[in-house]
Specification:
four-stranded antiparallel beta sheet; 90 residues; mainly beta; elongated; four-stranded mixed beta sheet; single chain
Length: 90
Protein backbone atom coordinates (compact mmCIF):
# COMPACT_ATOMS: atom_id res chain seq x y z
CA UNK A 1 0.00 0.00 0.00
CA UNK A 2 1.25 3.45 -0.90
CA UNK A 3 2.24 5.78 1.91
CA UNK A 4 1.83 8.95 -0.26
CA UNK A 5 -1.49 10.22 -1.57
CA UNK A 6 -1.92 10.46 -5.34
CA UNK A 7 -0.52 13.66 -6.82
CA UNK A 8 -2.33 15.42 -9.61
CA UNK A 9 -0.83 16.06 -13.04
CA UNK A 10 0.74 19.43 -13.68
CA UNK A 11 -0.09 21.29 -16.89
CA UNK A 12 2.62 23.93 -17.05
CA UNK A 13 5.76 21.86 -16.51
CA UNK A 14 7.07 21.71 -20.08
CA UNK A 15 8.86 24.76 -21.42
CA UNK A 16 10.22 25.25 -24.91
CA UNK A 17 12.91 27.75 -25.93
CA UNK A 18 12.00 30.88 -27.87
CA UNK A 19 12.04 30.75 -31.67
CA UNK A 20 14.29 33.82 -32.12
CA UNK A 21 11.84 35.51 -34.47
CA UNK A 22 11.82 39.16 -35.49
CA UNK A 23 13.73 41.72 -37.51
CA UNK A 24 17.42 40.85 -37.78
CA UNK A 25 18.57 43.82 -39.91
CA UNK A 26 16.95 47.24 -39.67
CA UNK A 27 16.50 49.97 -42.28
CA UNK A 28 19.73 51.54 -43.49
CA UNK A 29 21.92 48.57 -42.56
CA UNK A 30 24.12 46.87 -45.16
CA UNK A 31 23.23 43.33 -46.17
CA UNK A 32 25.01 40.59 -48.14
CA UNK A 33 23.42 38.04 -50.48
CA UNK A 34 21.53 35.29 -48.65
CA UNK A 35 21.56 37.02 -45.27
CA UNK A 36 18.42 36.77 -43.12
CA UNK A 37 16.58 40.08 -42.79
CA UNK A 38 13.34 39.03 -41.03
CA UNK A 39 12.30 35.77 -39.33
CA UNK A 40 8.52 35.56 -39.00
CA UNK A 41 5.58 33.20 -38.57
CA UNK A 42 3.16 33.91 -41.40
CA UNK A 43 3.48 36.75 -43.88
CA UNK A 44 3.37 39.79 -41.59
CA UNK A 45 6.01 41.53 -43.73
CA UNK A 46 6.19 41.12 -47.52
CA UNK A 47 9.34 40.64 -49.58
CA UNK A 48 9.95 43.28 -52.22
CA UNK A 49 12.64 44.07 -54.77
CA UNK A 50 16.02 42.51 -53.99
CA UNK A 51 14.62 40.02 -51.47
CA UNK A 52 13.02 36.59 -51.50
CA UNK A 53 10.89 34.63 -49.06
CA UNK A 54 11.72 31.05 -48.07
CA UNK A 55 9.21 28.31 -47.20
CA UNK A 56 9.02 29.26 -43.52
CA UNK A 57 8.33 32.95 -44.40
CA UNK A 58 11.90 34.08 -43.64
CA UNK A 59 12.92 37.05 -45.80
CA UNK A 60 16.44 36.82 -47.25
CA UNK A 61 18.50 39.23 -49.32
CA UNK A 62 18.78 38.35 -53.01
CA UNK A 63 21.63 40.81 -53.59
CA UNK A 64 24.13 42.99 -51.73
CA UNK A 65 22.81 46.40 -50.72
CA UNK A 66 21.02 48.40 -48.03
CA UNK A 67 17.80 47.29 -46.30
CA UNK A 68 14.76 49.52 -46.67
CA UNK A 69 11.30 49.22 -45.08
CA UNK A 70 8.17 50.92 -46.41
CA UNK A 71 4.43 50.61 -45.83
CA UNK A 72 2.34 49.58 -48.83
CA UNK A 73 -1.26 48.57 -49.49
CA UNK A 74 -1.71 44.90 -50.43
CA UNK A 75 -4.94 43.42 -51.76
CA UNK A 76 -6.23 40.36 -49.95
CA UNK A 77 -8.01 37.44 -51.61
CA UNK A 78 -11.38 38.83 -50.53
CA UNK A 79 -10.64 42.14 -52.28
CA UNK A 80 -9.99 44.12 -49.09
CA UNK A 81 -6.77 46.13 -49.14
CA UNK A 82 -4.58 46.15 -46.03
CA UNK A 83 -1.37 48.03 -45.27
CA UNK A 84 1.70 45.86 -44.74
CA UNK A 85 5.42 46.50 -44.42
CA UNK A 86 7.45 45.69 -47.52
CA UNK A 87 11.14 44.82 -47.22
CA UNK A 88 13.44 45.79 -50.10
CA UNK A 89 17.18 45.77 -50.73
CA UNK A 90 18.60 48.56 -52.90
Amino acid sequence: MSHVKAGGTSKNMHDSPGQRLGVKLFGGQKVKTGQVIVRQVGQTKHSGKGTFMSRNFTIHAKQDGVVKYQTRKFRRFSGKSVSRTEVTVE
